Amino acid sequence: MLNTGEQITCPTFDEPGNFHLELRCEDCDIQRLAGLNLGQVDDRYREGRITQNCFEAYMFAWAVLSPAGSRAEWRETPTSPDVRRIARKLLGLRGFDVPADLIEKRTGAFAEAA
User: Fold this and answer.
1) Alpha helices by DSSP H, the chain
2) Alpha-carbon gap, residue 78 to 85, rounded angstroms
3) Segments of the chain scoring below 50 in pLDDT
4) Residues contacting residue 34 through CB under 8 Å, at least 6 positions apart
5) Contact at 8 Å (CB) between 29 and 22?
6) What is the pTM (predicted TM-score) of this model?
């Protein structure tokens, strides 16, 4: 899959009407997800049109933004680094603050060098 980094880097991302096909580019998939409602995302997931990681990230983001209407298991911070990254990108794309417990914490010698 293309563009699976922390930042949105897809060169076609900001070009109107130009995007990668589903399941080919994480950035383009996230852009589509950002415009869908819960039912549409659930349908696409059941049809195999979005990945498990994208589905879990969307459900977490939805639960963060709609805590009263969401199931408890979706409000738990994801443990998968991929799901966490996708959730950060999705929330950021929509202009929402990323919850502090979703932000990766650097530890060890690598963090000290940064």
Assistant:
1) 26-34, 38-46, 52-65, 72-75, 81-93, 109-113
2) 10
3) 106-114
4) 90, 93, 94
5) yes
6) 0.80
